[in-house]
Design goal:
By secondary structure, this protein is an alpha+beta fold. Helix content is 46%, strand content 12%.
C-alpha cells in the first residue's frame, strides 16, 4: 500500500508501470522489465548516467514534499517510535538483545546537540537507495528505481547517506560514516536543496536513528526464526563510530 500510493501520486518517477492494483491493498501488478541492477553493470559511464537520473527524480520528489520541522520534536518522535519497535521485536530477541539496541539508540539520542530552535528538512524519501534497487535496460539505457515499500518522510539527507555509506552492507560502516563527517566523501551532496555544505554530528546521528527504525521495521515478523546478523553488525559499527569520535 505504501509503495502503490507513492508511485500513483508521483508518476514522474522512473518506475515500472503499474498495471493492476488490488482494492484491498494485498497485491499490485506492474509491467515486466528487462534490466540489470547497477552493481552488475560494468560500464562506469552507464552507471554514472543512471545515478544522475535517479538523483534528478529524487530531487524533484524532495522539492514536492519538503517540510521543515523542529529538530527537537522530530528527534523525540523518532526516539519514542524506535523504543516502541524495540519492545515489539519477536521473542527470539531476548531482554539482553533489546537492551543492547536501546543502549545504542540512547547513545545516539543523547549526542544530538540541539541548538535553540533548529529546524530539520523532511522529505518523502525512497528508504532503501542502494545499487541493487537501481535497474538499467542495457538496450535503451532506460533507468528504473524500484522497491519503494519503505518510502517515508525522513531527513532530506537520508537517501544520499544510505547510498554513499553503503548502509545495507554494514561491515565497515563506522569508517564510511567518519568519511562523511570529516568530508572525505562529498559525492552525496546531490540531495541538497539548501546552501549548507557540511553535515553536523547531530544530523548524522538523526540519520542513524532513522536507519535503525528501518532495520527494526524490517523485523516486524512475529514468528521470526533467526536473528538478523545485519542488525548486530550495524549496532557494533555504530558503537565503534561513536566511540572513535
Amino acid at each position: 500500500t505504501n509503495e502503490v500510493n507513492l508511485r500513483k501520486g508521483n508518476t514522474f518517477l522512473s518506475t515500472p508501470k503499474l498495471l493492476n492494483i488490488d482494492p484491498d491493498g494485498l497485491w499490485f501488478e506492474e509491467e515486466q522489465i528487462s534490466a540489470l541492477p547497477l552493481n552488475r553493470i560494468a560500464s562506469q559511464d552507464v552507471k554514472t548516467q543512471a545515478l544522475l537520473e535517479v538523483q534528478s527524480d529524487l530531487s524533484t520528489l524532495y522539492s514536492k514534499s519538503l517540510d521543515k520541522v523542529k529538530m527537537k520534536s522530530y528527534l523525540q518522535a523518532s526516539f519514542e517510535y524506535c523504543c516502541c519497535q524495540i519492545e515489539k521485536l519477536s521473542n527470539i530477541y531476548n531482554r539482553k538483545d533489546k537492551e543492547k539496541i536501546k543502549d545504542t539508540l540512547t547513545l545516539l539520542n543523547e549526542n544530538v546537540i540541539i541548538m535553540g530552535d533548529n529546524e530539520i528538512e523532511l522529505v518523502q524519501s525512497h528508504g532503501d537507495l542502494q545499487s541493487s534497487n537501481i535497474l538499467v535496460n542495457i538496450s535503451n539505457k532506460k533507468v528504473y528505481l524500484i522497491d519503494w515499500e519503505y518510502s517515508k518522510k525522513r531527513s532530506i539527507f537520508y537517501d544520499a547517506l544510505v547510498f554513499e555509506t553503503n548502509a545495507r552492507s554494514p561491515k565497515g560502516f563506522a569508517d564510511r560514516l567518519k568519511a562523511i563527517l570529516y568530508e572525505e566523501n562529498s559525492s552525496w551532496y546531490w540531495y541538497k536543496l539548501s546552501k549548507d555544505t557540511k553535515i553536523s554530528k547531530s544530523q548524522l546521528n538523526i540519520f542513524l536513528i532513522e536507519d535503525l527504525i528501518v532495520r527494526l521495521d524490517e523485523l516486524k515478523i512475529v514468528n521470526l526464526i533467526n536473528k538478523d546478523d545485519g542488525l548486530s553488525i550495524w549496532l557494533d559499527e555504530v558503537n565503534k563510530y561513536m566511540t572513535d569520535l
